[in-house]
Amino acid sequence: MSTKAAVCADVGSTFTKVAVVDLDSGDLLATASHPTTVDTDVLHGLDAATDNALTAAGVTDVHETYVCSSAGGGLRLAVVGYESLVTAEAGHRVGLSAGAKVVHVAAGRLDPAAVTAMRDQRPDVVLLVGGTDGGDADVLRHNANRLARSRLRVPVVLAGNVDVREEVAAVLTRGGTKVVPTDNVLPRIGVLHPAPARAAIREVFLRHVIGGKRLSKGPRFASLVRGATPDVVLTAVELLADLLGADLLVVDIGGATTDVYSVREPVDSTDVAGTLWRSRTVEGDLGLRWNAPSVLAAAVAERLLTESEKDHLEAPARARADDPGMTPQTDTDRSIDETIARLAATIALRRHARGDAVRTSGAGVGSPRTSAMDLRRVRLLVGSGGVLRHGIDASHGVLAAVLNDHEGGWALPQAAQPVLDRDYVLAPAGLLAADHPNAAKALLRRLIAAVPSR
């Protein structure tokens, strides 16, 4: 009997990873990777990795192909809200959960300088929010008019006060702006409603952004992509939490960013912007390749490195930024990678847990804060990323550094089990979750096998 196999691929900023999965059993049949060919056509690297994985699996007939992507910088999102500590912050949280890199947050009435500052950050999508349902709508109307008259020709996801949704959508449409109206991200104070906006952002990413990045010459790549990689991974993390039945953390160290995902069991909250119990933060300045020098600068600011230690690592960090596709060839190379990874993971978890100010730039930018999180009940810490999958000794050292960060300003998990996503099953599981949930669950169960039962 032939195997009913699916190809699941993640086209990343540096590498394209492919997994071949048996859809009936959920067995991982083979994996392969190839440098992402973003300079030519991403299909070249995708096809090469797929061919290698299928050959290793001994599979000749592919039932389905699923692809997620963060190539070309992923999804860049600007958030425009009403108040920096309420709707703009709610929009920021939702944007992160949708797999976006939030490159700009603006609060209040947009003026020409604020629009220019937002345009300078080159967003792919604008998330326009403001007002609770039935509440104030003047700022939302004003900002819609300003965006409609601007030269910022990117799609807008409208997720503000539903009482004026049709009116505001009509204003944007008349101005020539593509708009996707959806439910309010903050229908009532303290009630965060992320799912509709997250789905709308995914729709815009698939319909408008993938093709606009010109990652491939024809329509085939866009037809294969099911979502932004961070959004797909969050789907897997949510499913993993359901299987575990407890709080968990995932830290994913990439070439350009370090992403942190957390799922917590809900408790009473007084957060006016609403609490996102299943959330993600992306640290755009913390990456093992593209942003290696920024990791060092952040480590000095966090007192994880001295200036002399930073100076010693500066040249190899710059070499990694100049050649993002480099692979470690010596023990020294691997040691430096592991050091940068440990720093990136520690800083990213500090920011995720402490609730640091949103890191944006440009005039007219609001500065909401992400709320501090209580992660003491986390029972599983999953480490992901190429440096952890391919590292021999220091992979557990990276996770140990996170769990022993007593100077980080956050309450550490009291009994967390560290595990590595060595086979990189999170993205494949997220891709399969909707159509083949049993296969997705089977992939994820290997990550919780080592967690003691309560």
Give the SSE layout:
Elements: E1 5-11, E2 15-22, E3 28-35, H1 42-57, E4 62-69, E5 75-81, H2 87-97, E6 100-107, H3 112-120, E7 125-128, H4 138-149, E8 156-158, H5 165-174, E9 179-181, H6 195-212, H7 220-224, E10 225-228, H8 229-244, E11 248-253, E12 258-263, E13 278-283, H9 292-301, H10 307-322, H11 331-354, E14 380-384, H12 386-390, H13 394-403, E15 417-420, H14 426-432, H15 437-448
Parallel strand pairs: 1-4, 4-10, 5-6, 5-7, 7-8, 8-9, 11-14, 14-15
Antiparallel strand pairs: 1-2, 2-3, 11-12, 12-13
Description:
The protein is an alpha/beta fold. It folds into three domains: 5-72, Nucleotidyltransferase, domain 5, CATH 3.30.420.40; 75-212, Cobalamin-binding domain (Rossmann fold); 226-289 and 315-448. It has helices at 42-57, 87-97, 112-120, 138-149, 165-174, 195-212, 220-224, 229-244, 292-301, 307-322, 331-354, 386-390, 394-403, 426-432, 437-448; strands at 5-11, 15-22, 28-35, 62-69, 75-81, 100-107, 125-128, 156-158, 179-181, 225-228, 248-253, 258-263, 278-283, 380-384, 417-420. A five-stranded mixed β-sheet has the order 3-2-1-4-10, sandwiched between helices. The chain has a five-stranded parallel β-sheet with strand order 6-5-7-8-9, sandwiched between helices. Strands 13-12-11-14-15 form a five-stranded mixed β-sheet, sandwiched between helices. Helix 4 packs parallel to helix 5 (165-174) and helix 9 (292-301) packs antiparallel against helix 10 (307-322). The longest helix is centred in the last third of the chain and has 24 residues, at 331-354. It starts with a strand and ends in a 6-residue tail after the last helix.
